[in-house]
Specification:
CATH class: Alpha Beta
CATH superfamily: Glutaredoxin
CATH architecture: 3-Layer(aba) Sandwich
Mean pLDDT: 93
Largest sheet: 4 strands, mixed
Oligomer: single chain
Low-confidence stretches: none
Amino acid sequence: MKLIKFSALWCPSCLIMNGRINKIINKYNLECVEYDYDVDTDKVDTYKVGDILPVIIIENNNKEIIRIIGEKSDKELDKILEGVIDEKN
């Protein structure tokens, strides 16, 4: 499984979410790919990323299984991901 993260240097929510995203990556043993909203515009278009950042997409076999948009607490992230992906796959 792969976690794709879209963020920007100017985005305060992106900075806040970095640690929380790292916890997800470690908890679920995910591969991580990061894109900059302002630099990787082709990927932003391909994944149809809107104006709210950060955007986290979790894929399995190149198929999107969940998309998380905006700032979320650890508790919210756990609730969203619970049952969607298995810990340590």
